[in-house]
Automatic annotation (TrEMBL):
Lineage, broadest ranks: Bacteria, Bacillati, Bacillota, Bacilli, Bacillales
Matches recorded under InterPro entries: DUF1468 (IPR009936)
Keywords: Membrane, Transmembrane, Transmembrane helix
UniProt cross-references to Pfam families, sorted A to Z: TctB
Residue ranges of domain DUF1468 in the record: 7-141
Protein name, entry field: DUF1468 domain-containing protein
Length: 147
């Protein structure tokens, strides 16, 4: 993981720098104190800091041998769960499928605390409902089963 974190951090920094440079091409709005480039630049700086932290973390980690087959197995199962999630969203809706995905990922991660197993999926759905559906008016698919 040591090299992977360092390489990932460097890649994040390069991407953040690239997008930060693109913000200089935004049109200038002299009648506003904060222009269109403000938030993208904030996000790029945030990404740069996170990339630097990842490089620093990679430099501090001790090299531990990992078993490639375990990493592949966990990645493949996670990708399969996400694929099933994407397939079932149109049928049972976003909220139920998201609850099931998060619950299955927590169970797959061997979380045994029932409070966490129930509160994390419910809290995620509540956050999406309140923030995205109510405040931002994002249309959430309800599924053909409930239409």
């Amino acid at each position: 993981m040591k090299n992977a974190n360092s390489i990932s951090g460097l890649l994040v920094i390069i991407i953040a720098g690239f997008f930060y440079a693109l913000t200089f091409d935004f049109p200038d709005s002299s009648n506003q104190a904060i222009g269109a480039e403000f938030m993208p630049r904030v996000y790029c700086i945030f990404l740069f800091v996170l990339g630097a932290m990842l490089i620093f973390q990679g430099a501090r980690e001790k090299v531990e041998p990992t078993r490639e087959e375990d990493t592949f197995k966990y990645s493949a199962i996670t990708m399969l769960l996400v694929l099933v999630y994407l397939i079932i969203i149109p049928f049972i809706g976003f909220y139920i499928s998201t609850f099931l995905l998060i619950l299955s990922l927590l169970l797959f991660s061997k979380v045994k605390n029932w409070i966490i197993l129930i509160s994390i999926p419910i809290g995620t759905n509540l956050f999406i409902l309140i923030f995205f559906q109510n405040f931002l008016n994002v249309s959430i698919p309800m599924g053909s089963l409930f239409s």
